[in-house]
Amino acid sequence: MTEIHEGVFVNEAHGSVHSGSGAQFNFYVRTAEEKLRERARGRTRTIAEEDRVHIAQRFLAPPGLQRARDRVRDTHTVLIDGLPGSGRRTAALMLLHELPETHGSLHELPDTSDDKSASLLDPGDVGPGDRLLLDLSEVEESRYLDVQGELSGLRSTLIGRGAHLAVVLPHHLAYLLRADLRYLVAEVGRPSPHRVLKRHLRAVGIMPTAEELSGAELLTYLAKAPMRDVAALADRIRHCRDRSPADRGLPDWLARSLAVQQDRSAQVAADLTAMRSGRERALLISTAMFHGATAETVLRATNALLDVMSHPPDTTPRLDRADLHAELSMIGVEPQPDGRVRFGAEGYDRAVRDHFWTFLPDVRRQLRDWFKECLTDAAIGPADREAAITRFGRQVLRTGRPEDLAWLAERWMSVRPWERFVPEASQALAIGLDDERYGRFFRQRVYDWATSAETDNRLRQILVSVCSQTMALTHPDQALVRLHHLARRARGPVAANARQAVLDLAGSDERLYRQMLDRLAAGLADDRWPTDRTLFTELADPLRGLGFATVRASLIACWRSVLRRPVETWAAPVRDWLTAGVDLRHRRLVLPVLAAAAATDTRVSGRVYRVALDWERAGHSDERAATVRDLLRTIDAAQGLDFHGRAA
Question: What's the predicted TM-score (pTM) here?
Answer without folding.
Answer: 0.88
